User: Fold this.
Amino acid sequence: MKLAALTSAVVICTLALTPAASAQTAKATSNSAAPKKDAVPAAAPAPPSPELIRARMRPPVKGTAYVEVIKGQSKAVGKEIHNTHKVKNISPSPIVGLRIDEYFYASGKEVAIGSGKLRTALAPGEIAEITTTAELKPGINQSQLMFSHAGSPNGQVKPTSVKKFTEDKK
Assistant:
């Protein structure tokens, strides 16, 4: 009996509050500006090929993963420093949760830390860009990259710094 009374009270309260919530939503949408005629929708990235999707779905790397890295040039954007690195998976399995932590130094002291993470699995032979972002500090003169992944508790990644990626041997 108490359960039926409690249930009906909850339903009545929910119904009583619903018109007020929908009225606020209608008011918010009517006040919003109409899209401009010259506005162009943002271009969506091209969907991955079926072969790439299948390669990403294979069992991921457990233990140490191997990548090649082309380190990007740092750029000051407002009060932040952005650095885009290109990474190629040279392991035989996909790498899940690839992360780069970049430590910035000024006169030998650590002054800022930036990080970036790849949101999708990195298939074998696939190349991706990962951007790190950190607070811009005066006097930054060098940086160091630290890699990790979600494939194991330690998640070690062995990077090889290159000027150009190696070709796949197929």
